[in-house]
Amino acid sequence: MPALGFVVRPEHPPEQLAGRARAVEAAGFDELWLWEDCFLAGAIASAATALAATERVKVGLGIMPAPVRNPAFVAMELAALARMHPGRLLPGFGHGVPDWMRQIGAKPDSILALLEETISALRALLAGERVSVEGRYVRLDGVALDHPPEVVPPVFTGVRRAKSLALSGRVADGTILADPSPLPYIEWAREQIAATRPHRITAFTLVSMNSDVGAARDAVRPLVQERLAEGGPQFDGLDSIGDDLIDRLAALGPPEQCAATIAALRQAGADAVVLVPPPGLDVDPAYLGKGLAL
Fold this sequence. Notes:
By secondary structure, the protein is α/β, with parallel strands linked by helices. It is 42% helix and 20% strand.
């Protein structure tokens, strides 16, 4: 059965995370997801808190920016979490938001080369290998973890475009597709990934469960408009936001309509669907869990 996850948005104060993590687990979700935006709470500290506050739910990091993560040091952090919470850690890495990476002086000349070198080195280190590499960005001289995890966590990328998706298929264990992920985009992304070994697709999708469909659409409309303005392959050929488009880009409306959208995403090839509440909307995971009969 494909996994169902819930995002705890980083805008929430860090001191609320433990309670929110417990609520996500109690609601019956398989996974809890976090991400690392500048300049909010750090991903590793947040993941450690969520894992320590729960017993069963898996905790995903979707995503951390690779330009600011030395693979040796992030491997140490992830290995520690993976040993303390075997089988419950799902780390992901991406290119980083360009403006933020420029703001902190970490914008690489080649985002593709940096991500590929980082993921390759990180997966080898977590697997217990001794790594020597002299890459364009990653340089390691006989580095090996003293405490590699017995249950090696999968390493995902969070990417969108064709070249990055192909890279993910070559070097990562899975790909995280950011919201919104309409059905044709999931199918297209799988074609670009073209992995020759098991490769998990995690699809983030906006959620707005409400018996008033109009109100549900209005809750996600501003974020959909923002995503359209940012651009991306999932919006190719689109230049306006109508109700029919919003219906295709979010799990919204009454519970049965949300459930149907989730089922369609799974049918299109999503191995895990992660529900993303819109910013500013304090969604109760128990309400979603009850509505979806988790």
